[in-house]
Amino acid sequence: xxxxxxxxxxxxxxxxxxxxxxxxxxxxxxxxxxxxxxxxxxxxxxxxxxxxxxxxxxxxxxxxxxxxxxxxxxxxxxxxxxxxxxxxxxxxxxxxxxxxxxxxxxxxxxxxxxxxxxxxxxxxxxxxxxxxxxxx
Length: 136
Prior knowledge:
- The chain is α+β, with helices and mostly antiparallel strands and 136 residues long.
- Helix content is 33%, strand content 32%.
- The radius of gyration is 19 Å and the shape is globular.
């Protein structure tokens, strides 16, 4: 009995989509990709990206690339400095976008990251992507 239960459990786990696989959705939801970008606000020369600077960046760079909609949250982040192992804490902006055209978004996201790095002297923007089911 235990062996049959174990085999059934393993079979059920095998039926789950692996990470990064397209989501199997029930109507009215459709497969999509959720992109999260974490923008650190500390500037290399001191100070931080202000709310006004962030608002201008959002209006000039982000919104034209994702006019269908997006979400922005103010968050507190931390990371370990690779050079010396210090824990660095900074205020950040979390941008979340859900796209239904996964291949087409890659260039747009790359442009946003490059523009942020150049405008504010950053060295990178942390990024995650995951398949989701989405819709109204």
